[in-house]
Amino acid sequence: MRCRLYNCLRLDDTVTITCKVLRDEQNAKIKDLETAVQQLDEQQSEALQRLKAEHLEEKIRFQKEATVKVAKLEAQAPTAAVSSLSKHGSLIKTQNRQLRKELLELISANRSLQEREAMLKQQHKDLVHQGSLNSTAPSLSRTFVGRTQRLSLSASTRGTSQTSRTVR
DSSP assignment of 116-151, as one string? Predict the structure, then answer.
């Protein structure tokens, strides 16, 4: 029995030793894993810090570039504005000259038409007057002819009456 008991004890001791060795190995593995996790945390933290720093540097670089571009545009703006205003002013002057020329032509044409209208009104007035003279002319000529005939008759009767007076 002793043997058996010894074997049991031995087996228990072996299991206990084996369990203890396994536990020690597992504890060592856990410590290794915890160390690895801590190292990974540190690496990720460092990587995150690097990314943040790179992002901040890139942001600063973009801000500087934007500031430079804005400064260039601000420097170019007055020149561009003057150029644009000059071109626009030249265009307006050209259009004004053209419009002034057209206006003068229209004023000249209007004066010519007014002069022509005045001339035609005068001609119409003259023609109306001449027409009224022509319509009264036959009656005047009849009156004139009648008077001349009367005068010549009266003269001839006077002459005969004078001759008859002298004959008497």
Answer: HHHHHHHHHHHHHHHHHHHHHHHHHHHHHHHHHHHH
Please state, rounded to an integer, the average pLDDT across all residues of the chain. 83
Q: For residue 32, what are its two tokens?
A: 């290794």
Q: How many residues does the chain have?
A: 168
- Three-state DSSP class for 64? helix
Here the tokens at position 155 are 């003269």
SS (H, E, C) 16-42: HHHHHHHHHHHHHHHHHHHHHHHHHHH
pLDDT tens by residue, 80-107: 889 999 999 999 999 999 999 999 999 9
Residue in the structure block whose two tokens are 């007057």: 129
